[in-house]
Task: structure prediction
Amino acid sequence: MQRLIYGLARLMALLGGIVLVGLILLTCVSVTGRGANSLGHADWLEAAFPALSEAIIGSGVGPLLGDFEIVEAGIAFSIFAFLPWCQLRQGHAVVDIFTAMMPGGLSRFLITFWDVLFALVLILISWRLYEGLIGKFGNGQTTFLLQFPIWWAYAASFAGSVVAALTGVYVAVLRLAGLVTGRHLLPVSGGSAH
Result:
């Protein structure tokens, strides 16, 4: 089971990273195109170098159509894709002003409590994403500019949320077992403490 969960978490993190790099490149191209288009329409360039201004405008350079729609869907998927690996590695931000001074048993109990609660929240999110996916699939709604079906973004996010929920349940079960046995079956915290 451990190999399956870690393998799924790694795969999702890699997919999320690939999508995120693609979104970064897409955004850079779109912003560069938007900047070049603005430069071509600049009053000072039209007055000083009209041929250059017309060449820039005539090239058709500009922002990519629907870039924000792709970024919106891709970021949602990436967030859910990174959650399983972050949960396994206890990479979530931790504010431990008071808990750092607590005895070990109480600290382990609080960590277990939050991991169980987080697993329940991930299950709730997956369920609601599934309901949204079914609703969007049934109504044929599309994005405004690119006209791709909205359910595609819901499906991608739902897939990531299912792996995140499975990972959350896995971590919660191991935390509960560790609390009962007194052993550390997972790292206590590798997160970013603040």
Summary: The mean pLDDT is 91. Residues 177 and 185 are 8 Å apart (CA to CA). Helices lie at 2-40, 43-48, 50-58, 67-88, 104-139, 150-181. Residues 2-19+65-181 form one domain.
